[in-house]
Structure formats: C-alpha cells, structure tokens
Amino acid sequence: MPQTTLSISTRGQGLYEITDEVARFVRSEGQAQGLLTVFVRHTSCSLLIQENADPDVRRDLDGFFARLVPRTDHPDMRWVTHTTEGPDDMPAHIKAALTAVSLGIPVSGGRLALGTWQGIYLFEHRDSPHRREVVLHLSA
User: Fold this and answer.
1) What is the pTM of this model?
2) Domain total for the chain?
C-alpha cells in the first residue's frame, strides 16, 4: 500500500491548502481506483475539505473559530486549566477536537474525487509557525 508523509510549514493560525501536493502523490502512484486517507500527526491542528475558490471563505472560517474558541487570556476562557504552553494551546486542542484529524477521499480515474470547488486544507490552530506532518495512505 503506497504511503508518504508531507511536511507542511505554517506561519501561524489559518488554512493552508495542500490539494496540489496530495493530488501529485495520487497521480504518481498510477492507481485508478482506491481510497486515500489523509492523516495529520498533531493535536493542535486539523484537516478540512472546504471551498478553494473564494478566499473570503477561509477568512470567515478563521474568524468563526476565533470567536467560537478564543485564546485563554480572553475572559470567557477563565475555566481552562491547561495554560502552560501559552494562551493559544488549549484553544488549538479544542478546535482540533471539533474538526477532523483524518479524511477519507475516494480516488476515481487516477484522480481525487473532489468536487469542483473543494480543496484539502491543513487548519493550523496555533499562533506561531509550526512544521506539520501529514501522512497520505492510498489503499485499493
């Protein structure tokens, strides 16, 4: 079963599109049909399939999650006890718990079976830059 690991550099919170890198792996395997599993090996970021045409979608998602789970230095987050790694850490874990750390994407005709406006994103939930590992596994 073909497998590889992508290394994704982030610059802080936000959505980082990885569709091209993932599609390149699928094409390189030459497998007509199958299921691609995309898995992120971290607890403070996640994966999304989301619209990739209008950048306003990414901005609005960032804004929504910032309002839904603010940093622990926000008054609404006084109940949080895990604060030793900074005010963005526990909110990052919560955001990752609310979203996905793995995706299953069908492969059809040797290509990802994504819709017209769908892209694959690493969703970084921490403030500072990180290097994230995303495992791709293609099964028949």
Assistant:
1) 0.95
2) 1
